[in-house]
Amino acid sequence: MKRSAQPATASKSPRTRHAKDVPARARTQPEDGKPRTPGQEEGADRRHEILEIAAELFAERGYRATSIRDIAERAGLLAGSLYYHIRSKEALFVEIHNTALAAAAMRIHNALEDVTDPWARLQAACLEMLEIQLNSGSLTLPIMNNLRSVPTSVRDVLIQQRDDFEKIFRGLVADLPLDRNIDKNLYRILLLSLLNSADGWFREGRLSREEIAEQILRIFRH
Length: 222
Description:
By secondary structure, the chain is mainly α. The chain folds into two domains: 1-86, Orthogonal Bundle (Arc Repressor Mutant, subunit A); 91-221, Tetracycline Repressor, domain 2 (Orthogonal Bundle), CATH 1.10.357.10. Helices cover 59% and strands 0% of the residues. The protein has helices at 38-61, 68-75, 89-112, 118-134, 140-144, 152-174, 184-196, 198-201, 209-221. The longest helix has 24 residues, at 38-61. It starts with 37 loop residues before the first helix and ends with a helix. Residues 1-20 and 23-29 have low confidence and may be disordered.
């Protein structure tokens, strides 16, 4: 499909929720450090809006059920005009997935700042993961759980990015004074499996997220 020289507009559908995990780009300075022209500024803002809309749709409907036409309609564009801002649906999903992972990683790194005790660091990371997974406004979980529905070539890229994200927990577990008979790789896998499935077993009211993070630490410390 050819790219349109200028984006044409269509009727704009209402937004459903804000994609909090797609950080806004700098509005005054691009990556090369040179000031943007008014046209570049407008284009960057428009592209970020498209990323937010696409993230919402992927989270709501999944990768397969979301089409370029769906994204364009919600953005108020004609389908062909969307290619003025993006290369392909696959590239768009990879960018959103990686941005969501980067946002999650940044949140965990911030939570670990100034925490030095290995067990306290693990508890802080567990709590932040619970907050990410259980936040109804977060798109990280539904975006990350779309792996099975994407093409194999795209999945391979996403798995590599997820492996890089999990290095955070690999480092945290490596620092723990665990019994030498405990396999740290299996320990990490079990811990992440528990945290990544939190939306399936968590129920509001019984224990707070802070209390659950504390309980997880107590269980995994023995």
